[in-house]
Amino acid sequence: GIIEEEFIEKIDRSIKSIEDITSVEIAIITVESLEGRPIDEVALELFNKFGVGKKDYNNGILLLVSKDENQFRIEIGIGLEDILSDKFNDALANKVISPGFYKKQYGSSILRFVGRISSRIRIKGFSNLSIVSWLSGILSLIFGLAGIFSSSVLALTSYIDINRLSSLLVLFLKTTSPAIALALAAIVCGTLDLIREDDYLGGQRYSSRSTAGIILGVATLILVTIIFFMFREFVLFLADVFSLSSGSY
User: In terms of Cα–Cα distance, which of 144, 152, 182, 146 is closest to 169?
Assistant: First the structure.
């Protein structure tokens, strides 16, 4: 074949990894000559002949390379058309495959091709709920820390009586309420994403972002709850550290 020996095993491992995770099948076929036939016709024939992709999902990808004609063809199963758009495939052909094939670097170009396909599928494998959960979790922790900081500063620099617990807690809840709302959103969206029965190209959707969102949301709620019940002592401690006083008049 035209693929350098050093890249064959790497390409095989990458293809197997994609199939194990998503069930997407990728076939790389190289031929010496097309024998006068159009490459798109040959590619489609081979795609159907070898049954690339799972039957129920039609999620196969075939890359046909013809050495004598210096041509290649990417054939995509119908089940992948929404994920691997024409724009993406054109960029893949023009920026990854063509430059490498022109330099006769077949193995490295095909390995990059498989890598780009893998990255695209992995990104698309995250559901909208998981992304919302993940982002909400991150923002909840940021807003939580900011709320704790701002409420502490306001308690020390305003005319709030730090000895009045109710006033302090109202101030604390006002400044941390966005963090609490985001944390709850992260937990709810992440949980819904994990428990729903859904598949992605024949394999399970990725749950790492939902899990991370839930963990961050729970961590934010725990942090806010701890500071809430200790807020008066926390403010008095800061006042003592910075030698500040506060009161009402």
Answer: 152
At CA 28, angle to CA 23 and CA 34, rounded to 5? 140
Tell me the backbone φ, ψ of residue 145, rounded to 5 degrees.
-65, -40
Residue spans of the domains in the chain: they are: 5-124, 128-241
Selection from 137, 248, 144, 129 nearest residue 200 by Cα: 129
Which CATH architecture describes the domain 5-124? Roll (3.10)
Amino acid at 50: F
> Under 8 Å CB-to-CB from 2, ≥6 apart: which residues?
30, 65, 67, 106
Check if the beta carbon of residue 205 is closer than 8 Å to that of residue 83. no
Cα 1 to Cα 4, 75, 167, 196, distances in angstroms: 8, 20, 77, 45
Angle (CA) 16 22 27, round 5°: 45
DSSP 203: B
State the pTM of this model.
0.56
H-helix or E-strand spanning residue 72: strand 71-76
The pLDDT tens digits of the residues spanning 222-235 come to 999 999 988 888 88
* Contact (CB, 8 A) for 61 and 89: no
Distance CA 70, CA 91 (A): 18
Return the amino acid letter for 46. L
pLDDT in tens, 21-63: 778 899 999 998 998 899 999 999 999 999 998 888 888 999 9
Distances (CA, A) of 77 to 10, 47, 166, 175, 210: 24, 9, 63, 51, 29
